[in-house]
Design a protein that fits this description.
single chain, 361 residues, alpha/beta, TIM Barrel, twelve-stranded mixed sheet, 12 strands, 16% strand, globular, binds S-adenosylmethionine, binds iron/sulfur cluster
Length: 361
């Protein structure tokens, strides 16, 4: 079978591979609650590179490395360097069909481990874009959102993330060109008072803030609809202080973008609960142990174990065919169904869903 560039059952092409490098994290954000250990059968570097090559052959132009906390992964820089080199065509291999079409490599990290040396190493390895996550602007709110023991621990984490932002910028991740951004999850009744302080912090540093609605990923976080602060409400509060003009949502993007009228840079809102964007979702997720998922809200048992096709000596066409067939059968539009379907506004607690830190946020 010729895999070429498959479309799923809703006509959506594959565009992004989100690859989780570890299910572990050094934080314990209550809305995510990662495992303290890795799943058995973690992929090795060669398996990851085979997977990246197969996804690229099927149309992926963007690779986002995530987790868990990807900076815990000791081979991170080596993986980026190898993927970047192969996709610049420096090390052509039989697996590198259409190798030149990987356009960017991005990373999402909580930033607490981003030293000056690591930022430089990531840049040198070929990382194009970096998004750091921070849900508060003071020790108490950071501690509450990151699952840390007390405000002093939150303060230390905050200082590290802010230093990480500085290191990233100094290493060449230019926020003005979209190469450095800040993610913040906002939960109603938990950190909503951090909206303006976080926006101020991002504006002062010239970094785009991406405000994310609290999502019902996995089962552990005990998500309830009333804990979601809708993007429209977030925008209203920001607008009252700093008016913005809409820039729209880039196709296949997750965020509605805005420009501050006073020249204070950009703001983005990820409204996956209140205004789902399943219609042009082009993201394939693969967990650190090689299980492929076609939706962030997937049932745990819906993943496809790719390891049988990832071993040394396996024909790369076998992996491509398996991925192409998974993608062609894809019809996920969970977020849209949440707002329109029978489960309206809530989730069935009997559904066993893959957890965020496991399948890669
Ligand atoms: N540890 C890294 C980090 O925190 O950036 C990468 C993995 S994390 C799962 C990726 C992103 O998902 C983070 O920005 C995090 O805040 C976000 N996230 C995790 N759980 C979420 C949830 N239930 N709702 C919305 N965003 C969530
Ligand atoms: Fe860790 Fe990121 Fe999950 Fe927070 S959101 S616990 S930093 S993986």
């Amino acid at each position: 079978m010729e895999p070429s560039q498959p479309r799923d059952r809703l006509g959506r092409p594959l565009g992004v591979l989100r690859l989780s490098l570890t299910a572990r994290c050094n934080l314990a954000c209550p809305y995510c609650l990662p495992d303290g250990h890795e799943p058995p059968g973690l992929l090795d570097q060669e398996q990851r590179l085979r997977l990246i090559a197969a996804a690229v052959a099927l149309g992926a132009t963007s690779l986002r490395l995530t987790g868990g906390e990807p900076l815990l992964h000791p081979g991170l820089e080596a993986l980026i360097a190898a993927a970047a080199a192969r996709h610049r065509g420096e090390r052509a291999e039989p697996t590198d069909i259409r190798a030149a079409s990987l356009r960017e490599i991005a990373l999402t990290s909580n930033g607490t481990l981003l030293s000056r040396e690591r930022a430089l190493a990531l840049r040198a390895a070929g990382l194009d874009r970096l998004t750091l996550s921070l849900d508060g602007s003071d020790g108490a709110s950071v501690a509450a959102m990151a699952g840390l023991a007390d405000p002093a621990a939150g303060e230390r984490a905050l200082e590290k993330v802010l230093a990480g932002l500085d290191h990233a910028r100094a290493a060449g991740f230019d926020p003005g060109r979209g190469a450095l951004k800040l993610n913040a999850v906002i939960q109603r009744g938990r950190n909503e008072e951090q909206l303006l302080p976080l926006a101020a912090l991002a504006r002062e540093r010239g970094v785009e803030l991406r405000l994310i609605e609290y999502m019902d990923v996995g089962n552990r976080n005990g998500w309830r609809p009333d804990q979601v602060l809708p993007a429209a409400a977030m925008l209203e509060r920001i607008q009252a202080r700093w008016p913005v003009d809409p820039l729209g949502r880039p196709s296949n993007g997750t965020a509605q973008r805005y420009r501050y009228r006073d020249g204070g840079g950009h703001l983005a809102l990820v409204a996956s609960v209140s205004a789902p964007f399943c219609g042009d979702c082009n993201r394939l997720r693969v967990s650190a142990d090689g299980i492929a998922y076609t939706c962030l809200f997937a049932r745990a048992e819906r993943g496809l174990d790719l390891r049988p096709w990832l071993n040394a000596g396996s024909d790369p066409r076998g992996l491509q065919d398996a991925l192409a067939s998974l993608w062609r059968g894809r019809q996920d539009r969970w977020s849209e169904e949440r707002s329109t379907g029978a489960t309206k506004g809530s989730i069935d607690p009997a559904l066993r869903r893959a957890e965020m830190a496991y399948l890669g946020g």
